[in-house]
Amino acid sequence: MLRFQGVPVSGAPSEYRTKNMKTCLVVDNSKVVRMVARKILEELGFEVIEAEDGQVALDKSMESMPDVVLLDWNMPVMSGIEYLRALRVTE
Q1: Which of 10, 21, 46, 74 has the most CB atoms within 10 Å of its CB?
Q2: Share of the chain above pLDDT 70, in %
């Protein structure tokens, strides 16, 4: 049984899971990779936000900073390293 902060994820009340969940921004230009990552991360108790490139990821990060970022390096529009550099400038 998967647990999040000591509470079984599948058995935890939905209000507990939503209120206490960590967010993970999954950034990858492959929809399949994002879907697989989402499935795994949600089973581990994360709230998942998706972005298909670094620019979309930066926009979403500015709306609400995620707790964790799972980041592809080679993407169109804005690469992973360009995203990180732009994010650091905003701090």
Answers
A1: 46
A2: 77
Question: What pLDDT does 18 receive?
Answer: 53
As a whole number, mean pLDDT of residues 13-38 equals 82
Judging by DSSP bridges, how do beta strands 22-27 and 7-8 pair with one another? unpaired
Number of domains in the chain: 1
Backbone angles phi, psi at 90, to 5 degrees: -75, -15
Question: CA-CA distance, 68 to 72, in Å (whole number)?
Answer: 13
E-only strand ranges, the chain: 3-4, 7-8, 22-27, 46-51, 68-71
Place of tokens 């804005």: 78
Strand order in the sheet with 22-27: 46-51, 22-27, 68-71
- CATH number of the domain encompassing residue 32: 3.40.50.2300
Q: Would you give the end-to-end CA distance of the chain in angstroms?
A: 38
Expressed as residue numbers, the domain containing 24 is 3-90
